[in-house]
Amino acid sequence: SSSTVFDKPTRNTTNKHLYVLPVLLLEFLALAITRAVLPSLLLQTFQGRIYIVMGCTECIRGLLAFLTCPLFGRLSDIVGRKPCFFVTILGSMMPVCSLALGGDVLLFVWLLAISGAFSNTFTLTFAYISDCIKDDREKRVAAYGLALATFGLSYTIGPMLGGYLANSKLLVSGALADGDGEIGTDEEKFGDEIDLGGAKLVFIASLVLTILDLAYIWFILPESTDISLPQPE
Fold it and tell me: Is 120 helix (H, G, I), strand (E, B) or coil?
């Protein structure tokens, strides 16, 4: 039968678990750079409804993540880690990528809620590390810590980088700033599409990082499990 780029198992090389770290770094950096601009954008759009809207959105997102994490873990045992990583990154980054492509904040909120079904990166990461380090418990624990440190690094540099990008290209217009420096105008209506101005560059950068992450998974990340072996019941 023909094989695909997803079907090739990892060779027995030292520290092969390190291949998964760029997947984490790129995904969470793509998310973290948006943290500098999303709060004001959401507040401008939803105003007094912001707490209800985001509370419900995060509730749905968390519930979907709770339900799908075990399913993704089991599915990755059957089809391999690589395709599940690919789908997870693609689904998790849909909300931010939608802003880069269209700027519709309402669509972003809907996609953010749905993206919980794909928020399984750490489930797959820990499974990937376990595949690569089966017998050395201390090394496996250290690898888990390195994965968490990579996540922390993304959120350490991401918001600062996002703020710098937004300020470097901020467009002063009636839709973003009035003469007093206040965001938005009284004429804006709930749910209207708005000019993202400098924030647009941040979302485009996030889209680029997402594409790089997907390309890395497709072309470079080795498969860690041999899916040709029979799976336990």
Answer: coil
* pTM for the whole structure: 0.81
Contact 147, 133 (CB under 8 A): no
Look up residue 223 and give its DSSP letter. B
pLDDT tens digits, one per residue of 9-66 = 544 456 899 999 999 999 999 999 999 899 989 998 999 899 999 999 999 999 999 9
- The CATH superfamily of 16-219 is MFS general substrate transporter like domains (1.20.1250.20)
**Residues paired with 9 in a beta bridge:** 223
DSSP category for residue 131:
H
pLDDT in tens, 133-185: 988 999 999 999 999 999 999 999 999 999 888 887 654 444 444 445 454 44
Distance in angstroms (rounded) separating the CA atoms of residues 189 and 30: 29
Burial of 29 (0-12, 13-18, 19+ CB in 10 A): buried
Spatial separation of the C-alpha atoms in residues 69 and 73, rounded to whole Å: 6
